[in-house]
From TrEMBL:
GO terms for molecular function: ATP binding; ATP hydrolysis activity. This is Structural maintenance of chromosomes protein 2. The gene is smc2. Keywords: ATP-binding, Cell cycle, Cell division, Coiled coil, DNA condensation, Mitosis, Nucleotide-binding, Nucleus. Belongs to the SMC family. SMC2 subfamily. It comes from the Eukaryota. It is found in: Nucleus. Residues 519-639 form the SMC hinge domain.
């Protein structure tokens, strides 16, 4: 963003409206006689930027900026600046959509002070925020450089120069935060001291005095409480004992009466229940016949039909998938064939192109032979006419001899001139030899330094590129790590949920001894195998039963040690592999069983599971002696066959025992094998994800400081690049480079002239030879004519043979060309046909895929129907089982009721005798209770009823009451409870004070840590800024004063905060003080330092007001060139009276005074 135009109306010396248009984006200068309004243009710009300090624009009040303070009829001052905002990368926030931004400020004679942005009135703060966003704070304007600032820099002490660096780097922010935190620490220290004084002088002495009396008071209260409690407890115990006796006897009497009535009612009720039970048993037996027979069979048939339908759809799905795979293979084969055809087509096409190229060469050769034939015919005709010199240039022989003589004279003259020039250059070269060796040596050293620095730059650049690529990889790894962490957490959550829901599937125990080998505990049986097909899960679960939860161990010692050192809440069974004996089914028995039921209907249980061989004994012990059959009929036949005689289990969980028993109906076994298999898959996936996460995390840990390394390498690259540019500038502008370049240039000129002279002498000899040959031809004309005719005829014959031979070869190749055309045509047709076939195959593949989707939908529907039918079948089985259980329960109750009637009749006679005894004891206890009931108050009686007297001993209680009464009388004489009323208040106050002290100490430690961190950051930022400013300072000073060097040097090498001082050198000799410099040189030093700081943190606009006042013309010229070279990204507006400065500007504004008001003219300077 830069100033495009400026309009001043009524501001200071500009009484009339003046427009300054077409400012240059880079370098603008303002000049004019003193008093014509040069600096007022800069004041107008600062005025519009929102400056509040009026002395900066040389005014004391707002009225002073109005033309003649409002006394000349002008009552307002308005300045409008139009900014070019097309470069969006340097635009202010929220204004990137504007290509132009117009800001104006208007003040009046009253209190009027108006700002506008793009015509809209805005508050002054918005103007300040706008320019602050561009780092242009007009109330602390580092972008405005006046002559006074240059003088001030010259007189600065090292610490003041450092403060300039701090201001440019923005480290004052760290210092202000540090001062604020140090003030906070001071306040915390004062508060801490005050609180500790209060604690030590007031609270602690009072607490120590009261502590002793508190202990005695506590003992007195304790004794009094114990005494009162024991007395009440004695009375309560007597009261409760008598009440219990009375109540117990009354209750016993009531219970006996109730019991008698209950027994009588029970006997009658039991008789009625027996009749109802007989009816219920009859109804349940009929219901079982219906639910367990007819309905259950219907549902089973329905389930089998649905399963067949599902299998049919599954077969269609499999066939469709197979067809799709076949089509995909055909497509791949056809694509491969098409690629081969294309390659053949390209090869044939290339042969045609090669033929065309060769044919083009043949045609060119034929044309050349034809032209040669015409030329030789022409020559023969010329020779037959008597012209023996037909091969010479046009004209007679004598004319050619004269022409060659003239060319010979010109060539000899040119050769003489070249020889004279060579002698002159060699003399000049000898003059340059003086000091050449030293210059060449210096130049070689400089070039070696430049080459070394270029290699260093390339090395740093490569390291930065590699580090940047590694940083990108770091970001990708971080994203992968986050994704893996989420997956690990999800899988861990699933695992934890499974463990919490299924604690019985995990055997948890403590190691019986140190260094116990947990590999000897193999785990639960159910975790050591997996069914090959989960439709056998119910059968296998029923077969194993409770053995699924037995624990397999290496030997019996392991199980014994675990049982001795662990307390398990439930029973634990171990299977020691070293002791267990197991056998597998005899192959003959297996063969016999499968002959009975069919090999696809009868399976040895061991053949239906997968397991580790090391667990074979335990698995055989559980599953080794049983068969799994698909139906009950098959299971029954196999089980009771004399050649088999083994346990058989059906898919529904029915058990046929060779001993003759049959177990079936609703199965209460929990099906866990499929859940375990799924959880094992989750566990394997979790282990894999954890390993992958650990690998990625380790990679990230190895790259933890990569971002800092990239930043360091970037800074190092910039630093080395700047050094490289400085060395290049020194080499190319240095005297040795110019000397060596001039020397090499002279050598090159000598080599070129010597080459030209050699060519001239050769041409001179050639011309002399031609003249001699022509003179000889004049003497031997007749012999020459015959020889030339003979040579021409031979040449003509050779040309005719070549033409004939070329025609024969061309005809032969033409036949091959026609054959290629036919082959290419056939290949084109073949490729088109193959493309059509490929389209057809893709269509068929798409149709098959659509059919597969339809079949998959049908399969899902069939699967849902199958699940629904299975649920209905299981529900019906459950109902039948409930009916069977109900019959058994009713029969058991019938038998029990008969026994109760017999027992109740015997008990009635015993109850009548007991009731008589209880009545007599109750009357005696009631008399004793009336006496104590009158003596005790109602509250105490209620409390007594609530007390527990299980371990109460009345004699010991009486003895304790007497002892406590004596101690109470003794303490009551010396303790005054009134003094201790405020003790708890002091304790609470002291605790609150301690808590505040701890909080203050923690806050103080934390603040000190922050202060140390701020100091480190400040030093690092300051060191970086100092290095950057130092580089620019040296480059700028060297450019404005060639042969000179400048730098900033730390007064303390180990501590940059001690200050910086300016050092200057001329021709490599460093000056001890700036006092050794002239006034102009000192001004150049100060100005170079200020400009270097501007480069550290550049802004869009810089304003310089006569900064060259103390400089001579040559230095001013260098300053102007330097501004154009180093500040291409910013706009400069410079006020100067010296031609050396404004002659470098791209646009020059000249001020003059016309009719009492300032006026401005614009000039475009020459731009290179």
């Amino acid at each position: 963003m830069h100033i495009k135009s400026l309009v001043i109306d009524g501001f200071k010396s500009y009484g009339k409206r003046v427009e300054l248009n077409d400012f240059d984006p880079e370098f603008n200068a303002i000049t004019g006689l003193n008093g014509t309004g040069k600096s007022n243009i800069l004041d107008a710009i600062c005025f519009t930027l929102g400056i509040s300090a009026m002395n900066t624009i040389r005014a004391s009040t707002m009225q002073d900026v109005i033309y003649k303070s409002g006394q000349a009829g002008v009552h307002t001052a308005t300045v409008t600046i139009t900014f070019d905002n097309r470069d969006k990368s340097r635009s202010a926030p929220h204004y990137t959509h504007n290509d132009e931004i117009v800001i104006s400020r208007e003040v009046g004679m009253g209190s009027k002070n108006t700002y506008r942005i793009n015509g809209l009135t805005v508050p002054a703060k918005k103007i300040m925020d706008f320019f602050n966003s561009l780092q242009m704070n007009v109330n602390n304007p580092h972008f405005i450089i006046m002559q006074g600032r240059i003088t001030k820099v010259l007189n600065m002490k090292p610490i003041e120069i450092l403060s300039m660096i701090e201001e440019a780097a923005g480290t004052n922010m760290y210092e202000s935060k540090k001062r604020s935190l140090e003030m906070t620490v001071g306040k915390k220290d004062n508060k801490l001291k005050e609180m500790r004084d209060v604690a030590d002088e007031e609270i602690l002495p009072t607490m120590e005095t009261i502590e002793k009396e508190k202990q005695m008071l506590e003992e007195l209260n304790m004794v009094h409480g114990q005494l009162r409690i024991l007395k009440e407890k004695l009375d309560n115990w007597n009261y409760v004992q008598l009440m219990k006796m009375v109540n117990k006897l009354s209750e016993d009497l009531k219970k006996l009466n109730v019991l008698k009535q209950d027994k009588e009612e029970l006997i009658e009720t039991s008789k009625n229940q027996i009749k109802a039970m007989e009816e219920q048993i009859k109804q349940d037996e009929e219901l079982l016949k219906i639910n367990g027979g007819t309905n259950l069979n219907k549902l089973k048939v329905k389930l089998e039909e649905i399963e067949k339908e599902k299998d049919k759809v599954q077969l269609q799905v499999n066939a469709c998938k197979t067809n799709i795979n076949v089509e995909v293979k055909k497509i791949k084969d056809l694509e491969k064939q098409i690629n081969n055809s294309k390659k053949g087509y390209e090869a044939k096409k290339k042969e045609m192109e090669d033929f065309n190229k060769m044919n083009a060469g043949v045609e060119e050769e034929n044309e050349k032979n034809t032209n040669d034939l015409d030329e030789i015919d022409k020559k023969i005709r010329s020779l037959n006419s008597g012209n023996i010199f037909g091969d010479e240039d046009n004209g007679s022989v004598q004319e050619n001899i004269n022409k060659y003589n003239l060319e010979l004279q010109n060539q000899q003259t040119e050769n003489q001139q070249c020889a004279i020039k060579i002698d002159g250059l060699k003399k000049k070269l000898n003059e340059h030899l003086t000091g050449m060796k030293e210059a060449q040596k210096t130049y070689n050293i400089q070039m070696a330094q430049l080459t070394a620095k270029e290699k260093e730059y390339e090395k740093v650049k490569d390291e930065y590129i590699k580090a940047s690529e590694a940083l990108n990889q770091h970001h990708n790894l971080k994203s992968s790590r986050d994704n893996l962490l989420r997956e690990v957490r999800n899988l861990s959550s699933k695992t934890e949920s499974f463990e919490s829901n299924n604690p019985s599937l995990f055997f948890k125990y403590n190691d019986p001894r140190p260094n116990f080998d947990r590999r000897k505990v193999h785990g639960l049986i159910c975790r050591l195998f997996t069914p090959i097909d989960f439709r056998f899960e119910l059968a296998l679960t029923t077969l194993a039963g409770g053995k699924l939860y037995f624990i397999v161990v290496e030997d019996d010692t392991v199980g014994k040690d675990i049982l001795e050192t662990n307390k398990f809440s439930s029973r634990v069974n171990f299977i020691p592999l070293s002791k267990i004996k197991s056998n597998s089914l005899d192959p003959k028995i297996i063969s016999r069983a499968q002959q009975i039921g069919g090999a696809d209907q009868v399976f040895p249980a061991m053949s239906l599971i997968k397991y580790d061989k090391k667990h074979l004994k335990a698995i055989q012990w559980v599953f080794g002696q049983a068969f799994i059959c698909t139906t009950k009929g098959i299971a029954e036949k196999v089980c009771f066959d004399q050649g088999v005689n083994k346990h058989c289990f059906t898919l529904e969980g029915d058990h046929f025992n060779p001993s003759g028993s049959l177990t079936g109906g609703a199965n209460t076994q929990r099906l866990i094998l499929q859940s375990i298999a799924k959880q094992d898959e989750v566990s394997l996936e979790l282990q894999a994800k954890k390993a992958e996460f650990e690998k990625v995390d380790n990679s990230l840990q190895a790259m933890h400081n990569l971002q800092e390394k990239v930043a360091q390498l970037k800074d190092q690259q910039i630093f080395v690049q700047e050094e490289l540019e400085k060395i290049r500038s020194d080499v190319h502008l240095g005297q040795p480079h110019q000397q060596v370049t001039e020397f090499n240039k002279i050598n090159q000129q000598i080599v070129e002239l010597e080459s030209k002279l050699a060519e001239g002498k050769a041409n001179e000899k050639n011309l002399q030879k031609k003249i001699k040959d022509l003179e000889n031809k004049m003497k031997n004309a007749e012999n020459i004519l015959k020889k030339q005719l003979s040579d021409a005829e031979k040449t003509r014959k050779n040309i005719l043979e070549k033409i004939k031979k070329n025609k024969t070869e061309y005809d032969k190749k033409k036949n091959n060309y026609n054959k290629l055309e036919l082959e290419i045509k056939d290949l084109t047709g073949q490729m088109q046909e193959e493309e059509n076939q490929l389209v057809e195959l893709n269509v068929e593949k798409k149709q098959l895929e659509e059919k597969l989707l339809t079949l998959m939908s049908e399969l899902e529907i069939a699967d849902d129907k199958c699940k629904e039918a299975s649920k209905e079948y299981e529900a019906q089985k459950e109902i039948a089982m409930q009916n069977s259980n109900a019959i058994q329960e009713h029969k058991y109750l019938y038998k029990k009721l008969m026994e109760e009637i017999s027992t109740g009749q015997v008990n009635l006679a015993e109850l009548s005798s007991e009731m008589t005894k209880v009545t007599n004891g109750s009357l005696a206890a009631q008399e004793k209770f009336k006496d104590i009931d009158k003596r005790l108050p109602d509250e105490q009686k209620q409390m007594a009823l609530k007390m527990d007297f299980i371990n109460f001993k009345s004699e010991e209680c009486n003895r304790s009451v007497n002892e406590l009464q004596a101690r109470y009388d003794q303490l009551a004489k010396v303790v005054d409870p009134g003094k201790l009323n405020n003790f708890h208040k002091h304790i609470q106050e002291y605790k609150r004070l301690q808590k505040k002290l701890e909080t203050i100490v923690k806050d103080k430690i934390k603040i000190n840590e922050i202060i140390e961190e701020l100091e480190v950051k400040k030093r690092l930022h300051l060191q970086h800024a100092s290095n950057r400013v130092n580089i620019e300072f040296g480059k700028i000073f060297s450019s404005v004063l060639p042969g000179a060097q400048a730098r900033l040097k730390q007064t303390n090498v180990d501590d940059i905060t001690a200050g910086l001082e300016i050092c200057v050198a001329f021709n490599g000799l460093w000056k001890e003080s700036l006092e050794e410099l002239s006034g102009g040189q000192r001004s150049l030093v100060a100005l170079s330092l200020v400009l270097a700081m501007l480069l550290f943190n550049p802004v869009p606009l810089y304003i310089l007001d006569e900064v060259d006042a103390a400089l001579d013309l040559s230095h001013t010229q260098n300053i102007g060139k330097m501004l154009k070279q180093h500040f291409k990204q910013s706009q400069f507006i410079v006020v100067s009276l010296k031609d050396g400065m404004f002659s470098n500007a791209n646009v020059l504004f000249r001020t003059k005074f016309v009719d009492g008001s300032s006026a401005v003219t614009r000039t475009t300077c020459n731009q290179t």
